[in-house]
Design a protein that fits this description.
Elements lengths: L1 H6 L2 H58 L1
Amino acid sequence: MPYLLAQLTSDDVAREIARLQHGYRFLSAAMIVAWAIVVVYVLLLVGREKRLKREIAGLKVMLEEKQK
């Protein structure tokens, strides 16, 4: 193991750091996109729920008027 470490140069270490940072940048971008999709989906569901609640309230009013 010490022999392998002795063969490493500062350029090798810098290249490995750059490679790992590139991977983390890609992972970070992918996670941001995934969270954005989740947030948009949840907002769409909230809007749909509000619309359905209004429709149900309207139908209840219509039913009450019909029963009178």
